[in-house]
Amino acid sequence: MAGILLTTLALTSACHSDDEICTCLPPCEETVIVDADLYKNAPSDFLTITDASIHNDCLYVEFSASGCDGDSWEVKLIDANVIKESNPIQRDIRLSLKNEEECLAVFTRALTFDLTPVRTDDNEILLNLSGWDEQLLYNY
Questions:
Q1: How distant, in Å, are the alpha carbons of 4, 45, 94, 97, 99 from that of 72?
Q2: Distance of alpha carbon 64 from alpha carbon 47, whole angstroms
């Protein structure tokens, strides 16, 4: 729980303005996987996304799911490997959760994912995160 709090504090308080170049954020914990088959077929156990935002090249996602302690959860961020032509272009991503814990308690986790694998020649992408109502603008 302390790790989640520290990650949240680091991401939300590390920079003071949009114009500031922030080099004080920790590196992303995981990397987005670009794979159409995995996007369709990866586990999709129930989770609720409670927060999502982009900081530099990292997507911060906070989510909750039922379980015993969440330690055995397998979580991946997967891109559908499809570029939707619009201005800016769009990509669909989803959080995959494999959860074999059979307890009724609810736990919240936060993870960061490196988004650089989804970059194109454009300098920005709208990301459509399944389960999150707002599009996320990724500038690079």
A1: 16, 13, 19, 10, 7
A2: 6
Per domain, the residue ranges of the chain are 2-13+29-139
- pLDDT digit string (tens) for 14-30? 444 444 444 555 789 99
User: 53-107: per-residue pLDDT in tens?
Assistant: 999 999 999 999 999 999 999 999 999 999 999 999 999 999 999 999 999 999 9
Nearest to 59 by CA among 38, 43, 75: 75
* Nearest Cα to Cα of residue 64 among 46, 45, 77, 47: 47
What pTM did the predictor assign?
Answer: 0.81
Domain 2-13+29-139 falls under CATH 2.60.40.10: no
Helix (H) or strand (E) holding 96: strand 89-98
How far apart, in Å, are the Cα atoms of 87 and each of 57, 80, 83, 123? 20, 19, 11, 11
